[in-house]
Design brief:
By secondary structure, this protein is an alpha/beta fold. It is 40% helix and 16% strand. The protein has 17 helices and 13 strands. The strands form three sheets. It has a seven-stranded mixed β-sheet. Strands 5-4-3-6 form a four-stranded parallel β-sheet, with helices on both faces. The protein is globular, with a radius of gyration of 21 Å.
């Protein structure tokens, strides 16, 4: 595995939307990681059309097929959570569109993950890099209609302002509509986004069909995370070889990581794939001796114990450790009890499930109840055995990934922290007795949310 480029000086800046003093997101890069997504002057102000075009944005696209080839060569995978190769999705939508007569592109900025702020930072501060990426994706799949799908009010205002700055020809004749949705954990799932745009509730639907087969208005639809799309202008300007100059051979480029936990304010980092986790801790000012573990992928990928100190931040390594980067949200656990954190996360999934699938509606409630009883010292070994069984048999039984996320949390708690589980079953946990952890949204990146 190639070691990522990590030499140089750290950059750390506060950023605010010029019209909203309440929301502040601190951003930083790792040493030697030249910002691609955070921009050349991250933190200065919301980037308008003139500033973005001055950096080389909205360049004419001579050959859409050539750009698709660069996307494929780059190894770019989705940054929304699933890490699916973008070129594969683009080709599928393009090819299906040729058969059915028309395609649609959706820039998915409904960041329902409480531990993540990356998408709203891009939409609030660099809306044009997202719209430029949307333009390029639409050109590749031959779409004439596109949507930006958001729940964050400040992001919506920023996108509206950016669209008002554009000449109709700037986006290559693509009509772009802004769709606002009420925030929710499931609202950003791709079929939920399509359903909402089609006039229904923002709740997932059964698959098939998937959006690339039949999405908005029944047309093949590319639903892509805004960070994923924001990489396309860089690829157009610099090509796949330069894109792969940071990262590893299998996890290419840089990614945005929201770091929460450890009693510290959240920070949004741009990092090269392959960065050792211990180097991220050093950037964030956390001693490895303090670390009990971490939650990865927001809440989705579950827990790792102190073995996390041996990892590097790339997809292949995280899979080998039984976890995943997901949307790039990492919550470091230091003083908090993992059992109590798991109980809070499972209670969150119980509240946030769509209420459509019996397996998810009942399964998340059952796992949340068992974890809550374990946290409070009221569980038995039979309860833990049931939690373990549910974490296996319920996997894959929901219309979306919410139930899988809950099973990941339950299974990883039992696997990664058996001593903490046993302590709760026996004499109780001194951490939970002295300072109960029962936050509605543990490790929520509150600094980036509206008051």
């Amino acid at each position: 595995m190639r070691k990522p480029n990590c030499n140089g000086d750290e950059l750390a800046l506060n950023t605010t939307h010029p019209t909203t003093a309440a929301s502040v997101i601190t951003v930083a890069t790792s040493p030697g990681c030249t910002p691609r997504l955070l921009g050349e002057q991250p933190g200065q102000a919301r980037e308008d059309f003139a500033a973005y075009q001055g950096l080389g944005g909205y360049r004419p696209l001579a050959d859409a097929d050539e750009l698709l080839g660069e996307v494929e060569s780059s190894g770019l995978v989705g940054r929304g959570g699933a890490a699916f190769p973008l070129a594969v999705k683009l080709r599928a939508v393009r090819d299906n569109g040729r058969l059915t007569g028309g395609t649609v592109v959706v820039a998915n900025g409904e960041e329902g993950e409480p531990a993540s702020v990356k998408d709203r930072w891009l939409l609030r501060n660099r809306p044009h890099v997202v719209l430029d990426g949307l333009r390029l994706a639409a050109a590749i799949v031959a779409a004439d209609h596109a949507y930006v799908y958001v729940s964050d009010p400040e992001s919506a205002h920023s996108v509206e302002a950016a669209l008002s700055e554009l000449h109709p020809d700037t986006l290559g004749g693509v009509r772009v509509d802004l769709i606002r949705v009420q925030p929710g954990y499931v609202a950003g799932e791709e079929t939920a986004a399509v359903r909402m745009i089609n006039g229904g509730p923002a709740k997932p639907t059964d698959k098939p069909p998937r959006p690339f087969e039949a999405g908005v208005g029944g047309r093949p639809t590319l639903v892509s995370n805004v960070e994923t799309l924001a990489n396309l202008p860089y690829l157009q300007r610099h090509g796949s070889a330069m894109f792969r100059s940071q990262g590893t051979s299998l996890s290419t480029g840089t990614f945005l990581a929201t770091i929460t936990g450890a009693g510290r304010p959240p920070i949004l980092y741009e990092l090269p794939h392959g960065l050792p986790f211990t180097e991220l801790l050093a950037l964030h000012g956390i001693s490895p001796d303090q670390v009990r573990g971490a939650l990865f992928g927001g809440y989705f990928a579950g827990f790792l114990n102190r073995d996390v100190l041996e990892t590097t931040l790339d997809h292949e390594t995280m899979r080998r450790f039984g976890s995943g980067l997901g949307c790039g949200a990492i919550s470091v656990i230091t003083d908090d009890c993992p059992v109590a954190v798991a109980a809070s996360v499972l209670a969150y999934f119980d509240r946030e499930n769509a209420g459509q699938c019996g397996s998810c509606f009942n399964g998340t409630a059952a796992m949340a109840a068992a974890a809550g009883a374990l946290r409070d010292g009221g569980a038995t070994t039979e309860d833990v055995d049931r939690l373990r069984r549910w974490s296996v048999v319920l996997r894959g039984r929901g219309a979306c990934a919410t139930l899988d996320a809950a099973t990941n949390v339950a299974a990883s708690l039992l696997d990664q922290f058996p001593d903490d589980v046993a302590r709760h079953l026996e004499d109780g946990c001194p951490d939970c007795r002295n300072q109960p952890f029962r936050f509605d949204r543990p490790y929520e990146a509150e600094a980036a949310r509206q008051a």
